[in-house]
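Figure 2 data, in text form.
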Amino acid sequence: MKRLVFAALIASSGFTSRAETPEQHGKRVVDECVQALGGDRYLNMQNRVESGRVYSFYRERLTGLSIAKIYTHYDTDVKDTAHQLAQRERDNYGKKEDYGTLFTDKEAWDITYRGARPLPADRFTRYSETTLRDIFYILRVRLHERGWIFESKGADVIENAAVEIVDLTDADNRTTTVYFDRITKLPVRQAFYRRDPVTKEKHEEVTHFTKYRETGGIQWPFAIERDRNGEKIFEIFSTSVEVNDPKVGFNLFELPSTIKLLKPE
């Protein structure tokens, strides 16, 4: 029965899209996603706090597990959002949140009781590129940019869900392929290719989004898995997600003036 329903959805997708160009159809799918995520509430989200457990993997083996609280702040003053991050992120670990990582718009720091140590430049570069090509960041921050092309690549069945596939390509020719659930209109998967700046190897970065829940009028995935070249590297399972928390001040996303600055490793 499920296969028949999926087949009917895919067939109907082909029928309705004949009156549209691939670009028009892709734009409509993206617009529907924005509305499904919460519309204006999503577009005006100022901060987000995800609490839960995070797991890291190497060659499919678990290498790290921690209680985590991930704070995200959006900066509305950034003009060149295609090249400069309009987001700051603070990842705190442990029940006391006494160690973690800080990502600003220009650098990244590892923070412990010893002090703050700058992370290698390639770590920040990877974080920046991954953020700029993340579908949730694109929809929240980058939609106003000129030069976007949203091209429908048709319909398919992915992970037991009928999906619409859209290539989102910016003015710098960076493409993220996103799979949108045909029923909920929400992203269930994204993929893009990234070239390692040192080895020049090409890596496929895939992220899966599941277990959506409503929080503050916004839909957000409570389970996120990231894969690299077909191998799982990261998972987060959130127990709670809060948006626009007035207690989250900008000082959380800056190094304290009293913290000891350590030398890079």
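Caption note: Residues 26 and 152 are 4 Å apart (CA to CA).
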